[in-house]
Design goal:
This protein is an alpha/beta fold. It is 31% helix and 20% strand. It is built from 6 helices and 10 strands; from the N terminus they run αββαβαββββαβαβαβ.
Length: 232
């Protein structure tokens, strides 16, 4: 990503260009379900999540936020929200993290001192988490109460994940790509978020089922969504 262009700028540019077009389409082949977020809906969730992280966890420029989640559209929202605030993302529990986002109240061993905990429900439609520890924030429930406009300061992020190259930027401009993944990891972030932002495109993110190894299923989704598979 060019150093002078931020993810916030790119998302704002996409919003001005065509706010109603699809940006993230999510399939969960284990639980079933398809969710599609337009540019406007993704931006709205990003702003609400950024406001929540700033208010509940004091996340700001330079802070590290751990994101330990299965592949899910809310994981992409969380990454974009951290970048909006000028923070960095650690895709594992991180020492000194300003906040720790985990799936459904099942955090791995947290560093000491324990960071602020935000729990993310990962059913296909999102919504409240199944289990929320005492003192934790429930992203799917609580983000909806936050404003639709940013109420605090933002800053450019210097996250190394934004230094995308190679496969992360492969494909034609404004392309629609299909990305598979089980977790929000570096490849998923770069292919399913950085690439669509930089290329003014969109993504179909597929979380495979435990027993769903039939490539014909992915071929069918790719054909239905008119997406170019990026399954590596």
């Amino acid at each position: 990503m060019p150093s002078h262009v931020s993810p916030t700028d790119l998302l704002a540019q996409a919003l001005r260009h065509d706010a109603g077009r699809p940006f993230v389409t999510f399939y969960d082949l284990e639980l079933g379900g398809r969710v599609e977020l337009s540019v406007a809906t993704f931006e709205n969730w990003t702003v609400k999540t950024a406001n929540l992280l700033a208010e509940e966890c004091d996340v700001g420029a330079g802070d590290v936020v751990s994101i330990v989640l299965p592949a899910h559209w809310l994981g992409l929202v969380a990454v974009q929200a951290v970048w909006t605030l000028g923070g960095r993302v650690a895709l594992h529990p991180a020492e000194g993290a300003a906040a720790h986002l985990v799936a459904d109240g099942e955090p791995p061993a947290a560093p000491e001192p324990a960071p602020s905990l935000v729990v993310v429900g990962t059913r296909p439609l999102g919504g409240p988490a199944r289990s929320v520890p005492a003192g934790a924030t429930d992203l799917g429930r609580d983000a909806l109460t936050y404003p639709d406009v940013l109420v605090g300061p933002t800053a450019p992020s210097d996250d190394p994940l934004l230094s995308a190259d190679g496969d992360a930027l492969a494909g034609p401009a404004a392309s629609r790509t299909l990305v598979t993944g089980t977790r929000v990891d570096q490849r998923v972030v770069r292919q399913a978020l950085v690439q669509p932002l930089v290329r003014d495109g969109s993504v179909v993110l597929v979380r495979p089922g435990g027993s769903d190894a039939d490539p014909r299923r992915l071929d069918s989704i790719a054909a239905t969504e008119r997406a170019l598979p990026l399954v590596g």
